[in-house]
Amino acid sequence: MIFGCCRWAELVSYFLQHNNLRRMAFLHILLSILGTISWATEVDTLAPPVDIYWNRTNDIFLRSNNDHIVQVQIKERIRFICPFYTDSTTDRDDTEHYIIYRLPKRFYDSCHIPNVSESQLRNQYGIEKVHNCSTPYNQTEFISFIDPFLALPGIYGGLSYVSGREYFFTSISTGPLSGINNRESTHSACKRYNMKAIVRVCCNDSFTDPPIVTGDPPTTISTTTSSPTTSWKDVTTKILSTSKCFIVHY
Q: How far apart are CA 210 and CA 103, in angstroms?
């Protein structure tokens, strides 16, 4: 069976014009799914990912250099590689365990995050949990695709990126398994070992911090029937005009 994604998007455009409920949420999910399919069709032809070995002995974390600043372009990938021990006789207390976060610059600089739930971190403070490096005897990694639309958790990296901006990554964990969920600055890997990385998405001479969501998360999604200034047909037409049209065979 052959399914034309552009034709599907035209049908979705019709749906959006005639249904006011949760339009924004639906459109966001649609863009993420379409972006994921696009990535899946291109993944075999992509350049190798930029690897970041997330352990405290990595030289990129030395305070004497700027190797922790990584420049990438849209449609490239970053691979975060967790600490891995081939010798299972190594005592677990001597292995490294980290939670990697993407977070606003103010938390990156202070090396701490609020002691609230993960949903509150994400919705109120703009802090995203990227990966949990908690299995040192199994080689694990996390690949983040540099794409403006892939923002659904669990889908090809689950993080969106915008060209011309900087994104900040660090671990507040202390290192041992007992401190993996640490939120304080003093003993954090961020503070003690300078385990930080900045991802610059090329190309723009002016880099800015991604927008920070503040205040309480919304409890409901507006269902107003008032007409927007720009029609939803115009929105989807604009998306299609700036995106590659592709065919999926299955």
A: 9
35/107 Cα distance (integer angstroms): 30
Angstrom CA distances, 127 to 120, 158, 245, stand at: 9, 13, 33
Beta bridge partners of 98: 133
Q: How many helices (H) and strands (E) does the chain have?
A: 6, 10
Residue 141 has φ and ψ, to the nearest 5°, of -155, 165
pLDDT digits (tens, 9 = 90+) for 144-190: 888 776 554 444 446 888 889 999 999 999 999 999 999 999 999 99
Contact 135, 82 (CB under 8 A): yes
DSSP string spanning 126-163? Answer: --EEEEEE--TTS--EEEEE--SS--STTSTTS----T
Taking a C-beta distance cutoff of 8 angstroms, is the pair 76, 47 a contact?
yes
Going by C-alpha positions, the residue among 72, 70, 67, 81 that lies closest to residue 47 is: 72
pLDDT in tens, 35-62: 545 544 455 566 789 999 999 999 999 9
Cite the DSSP H helix spans in 43-132.
105-110, 118-125
Q: CA 214 → CA 4, 71, 129, 138, distances in Å? A: 39, 28, 17, 37
Q: Are 151 and 160 in contact (CB under 8 A)?
A: yes
Cis peptide before 202 (omega within 30 of 0): no
β partners of residue 202: 73
- Does the pTM surpass 0.70? The reply is no
